[in-house]
Specification:
The complex is a heterodimer of chains A (353) and B (333).
Chain A (H helix, E strand, L loop, with lengths): L4 H6 L21 H4 L2 H26 L14 H8 L7 E5 L3 H6 L4 H8 L23 E5 L5 H14 L6 E6 L6 H12 L4 E7 L2 E2 L2 E2 H4 L16 E5 L3 H16 L5 E6 L17 H8 L3 H11 L5 H23 L17
Parallel strand pairs in A: 1-2, 1-3, 3-4, 4-8, 7-8
Antiparallel strand pairs in A: 5-6
Chain B lengths: L7 E3 H15 L3 E5 L15 H9 E3 L4 H13 L3 E5 L10 H8 L2 H4 L9 E6 L14 H5 L5 E4 L3 H13 L4 E6 L6 E3 L13 E4 L4 E5 L3 H14 L4 E5 L2 E3 L3 H11 L2 E8 L4 H10 L12 E5 L8 H7 L3 H13 L3
Parallel strand pairs in B: 2-3, 2-4, 4-5, 5-7, 6-7, 10-11, 10-13, 13-14
Antiparallel strand pairs in B: 1-8, 6-12, 9-11
Helix pairs in contact in B: 1-7, 3-4, 8-12
Chain lengths: 353, 333
């Protein structure tokens, strides 16, 4: 039915902009160069390097036919994992997703045990039952990677709820991707975390694609953090390839959570260099696009920041690089010698005693 | 047992008493779900609990079944013992990703280094005229998911002991409560007790036929057995109680004794507990004792209809059990 002009004039409904983007004050990440001790900055670089080498080694082992399953590489996204994790205290927690090698290393996992799990070995973190997609290090505060997109988000509500009910001062980082933010579970969970003021920082790693589906085609907003306003929680987007900016932003969000003010949503804008998984033929994006993002390499960028600010010399950086490479090489060598699990006890871990 | 201790309460009160006693005993136990607070839950099961335990531990949620299941899974991963109430079992389908892909799998895929001690209380079953989306019995969906336990109860005594055991169990337990049983009364001790999961119970002994049932089909089978006894046919009624793990030993022992077996349940026959139980019997020494084929008497493969007559026709009633049991008990004699 067409409304008459008269109706329009009579209408008292006003269209107003109800969007209220609650942002927290986040300073410039560069200030961290002075705030953080040199050892911490070196540690960050080392972890980023370890993640890169771990994944390159994983790819190599896969190509050599030594790996049974699949893998999802986060090459190019190292700043998101390390910048976020470095904002935590040691006893804080993370829950993350299938592209999770970075978070696991950044949370301080033993790389040999990770490699062992990737290779499906009994001494691996999950005794060869989980593989690349499900690495967990419960005593280390890594409550596991989930393989179904977005599935860690509702579970994060429960972890946050337990922290809240026990009046713990721990905080949980919940990592997920841009694709997960289109799930119903995302909405239910952020709403629930908001009404209960749970100490959870929801970190959306926007790497531009859910498998082959571009964020440009899967949503009509330019910043995923804008979704935060639906839950009346702070939402912030940050250059996810700038490790200091990520750290600065997540630190603010973590303190917000720790002080009892509830959850927030941080979007780390980044890019996945490799395909979604091994089956990916990159038909949905151009080589030019990939090259453009490779020029924004988070590791090279951080190295430049460190040398420009005279925090480290290029020799020191080279030494860190060598050490990271050696750590990963040793881990792979050792893990390859580990025993396979036995089918004898296959049912043992299905149910807890 | 003295007369004063033979206290009778309803099935619904027994469910509440189990929760209340466990929440008093263990500060890590809490209840969570839609309208479980002031409203007392859709069926009134949690009435009065908010007053005793407060809104932190009798936690009302928005209508968000996926997040409720996630909240329970995550809290359990942290070592708490959540009880989540799903208002109608039908709505559990919205929780499926968290229950099937997270709660059931976390322990195994993390190499046994975590556990998920949680209970999903799910009012199930037809007979209330609530039609196809409020009357389902979805136990079979969970039977095929390693990592989850499935428990049912047919009496007030059982529902209390089984719920206490489920809360104390270190695994995700789907705990089905039958809506039509909520108002049934029975003797229930005031003190706390447990009934082990995975143990069936012979609710009536008989020599002519084993009727293996659970939930509301147990009282219906007992009523049919009573009538058949007048005809000289002695039915043994086995209440499975836990569907997973299933007490194969008790099933096999009963069938070895009677030589005839009929499995009765409300949920649709295809892919149901009946087929699984029949296979348990066929795979066991009881096969050699069979004097007649194993029979299944279960719900039709239809959604639960609204109309009273159609609704009754869709699932086994006392008369259906009576007729089928009589025929099987006499077959080949």
């Amino acid at each position: 039915m067409t409304r008459s002009t008269e109706d329009k004039e009579d209408s008292t409904v006003a269209v107003v902009d109800i969007e209220e983007n609650l942002s927290l004050e986040v300073g410039d990440g560069a200030c961290l160069l002075e705030e953080l001790p040199r050892e911490k900055l070196a540690w960050m670089l080392q972890k980023m390097r370890e993640i890169r080498y771990f994944e390159e080694k994983a790819e190599e082992l896969y190509t050599r036919g030594l790996v049974h399953g699949t893998m999802h590489l986060s090459v190019g996204q190292e700043a998101s994992a390390v910048g976020s994790a470095v904002a935590l205290k040691p006893n804080d927690l993370v829950i993350h997703h299938h592209r999770g090698h970075g978070h696991t290393i950044a949370k301080g996992a033993d790389i040999t045990l990770m490699m062992a799990e990737f290779l499906g070995k009994e001494p691996g973190y999950c005794r060869g039952r989980g593989g690349s997609m499900h690495i967990a290090d419960i005593p280390g505060g890594n409550l596991g990677a989930t393989g179904v997109v977005g599935s860690g988000i509702p579970t994060a509500v429960g972890i946050g709820l337990a922290l809240h009910m026990r009046k713990s001062d721990q905080v949980l980082l919940c990592f997920f991707g841009d694709g997960a933010s289109n799930l119903g579970e995302f909405h239910e969970s952020l709403n629930m975390a908001s009404i209960w003021d749970l100490p959870v920082v929801f970190i959306c790693e926007n790497n531009q694609y859910g498998m082959s589906m571009s964020v440009k085609r899967s949503m009509n907003i330019d910043r995923i953090s804008r979704r935060a306003c639906s839950y009346r929680i702070p939402g912030m987007s940050v250059d996810g390839n700038d490790v200091l900016a990520v750290c600065q932003t997540v630190k603010v969000a973590v303190e917000h959570a720790r002080s009892g003010k509830g959850p927030s949503l941080v979007e780390n804008v980044t890019y996945r260099w490799r395909g979604h998984s091994k089956s990916d033929r990159n038909l949905y994006r151009t080589q030019e696009e990939i090259s453009t993002w490779k020029e924004r390499c988070p590791i090279k960028r951080f190295e430049k920041v460190l040398t420009d600010a005279s925090v480290m010399t290029s020799e020191e950086i080279e030494a860190i690089d060598q050490e990271a490479r050696a750590t990963v090489d040793r881990a792979a060598e050792e893990a390859l010698t580990f025993p396979e699990p036995s089918p004898e006890n296959l049912e043992d871990e299905v149910y807890a005693p | 047992m003295s007369e004063s201790r033979k206290r009778e309460i309803t099935y619904l009160e027994a469910v509440r008493e189990a929760m209340v006693q466990e929440m008093r005993r263990d500060p890590e136990v809490f209840l969570m779900g839609e309208d479980v607070g002031v409203y007392g839950g859709a069926f009134g099961v949690s009435r009065g609990m908010l007053e005793e335990f407060g809104p932190e531990r009798v936690r009302e949620t928005p209508i968000s079944e996926a997040a409720i299941a996630g909240a329970a899974t995550g809290a359990a991963l942290m070592g708490m013992r959540p009880i989540m109430e799903i208002m109608f079992m039908d709505f559990i389908t919205i929780s499926m990703n968290q229950l099937v892909n997270q709660a059931a799998k976390v322990r195994f895929m993390f190499g046994g280094k975590a556990s998920i001690p949680m209970v999903v209380r799910a009012p199930a079953g037809s007979g209330t005229g609530a039609a196809a989306q409020h009357c389902q019995s979805l136990e079979s969906l969970f039977m095929n998911v390693p990592g989850i336990k499935v428990v049912t109860s047919s009496t007030p005594y059982d529902v209390k002991g089984l719920l206490v055991a489920s809360i104390r169990d270190n695994n995700p337990v789907v705990f089905m409560e039958h809506k039509l049983l909520y108002r049934t009364k029975g003797a229930v001790p005031e003190e706390s007790y447990t009934i082990p999961l995975g143990k069936a119970e012979v609710k009536r002994e008989g020599r002519d036929l084993s009727v293996i049932a659970y939930s509301i089909m147990v009282p219906r089978a007992l009523e049919a057995a009573e009538q058949l006894a007048a005809e000289g046919i002695e039915i043994e009624v086995v209440d499975l109680r836990s569907l997973k793990p299933m007490d194969k030993e008790t099933i096999v022992r009963s069938v070895c004794k009677t030589g005839r077996a009929m499995i009765v349940h409300e949920s649709p026959v295809t892919g149901g507990v009946g087929g699984e139980t029949a296979a348990v019997i066929a795979d066991s020494e009881a096969f050699d004792y069979l004097d007649a084929p194993i029979r299944r008497l279960a719900g039709w493969d239809v959604p639960i209809p609204y109309n009273r007559t159609l609704e009754r026709a869709a699932v086994p009633q006392v008369d259906d059990i009576l007729v089928a049991a009589r025929a099987l008990a006499l077959e080949g004699r």
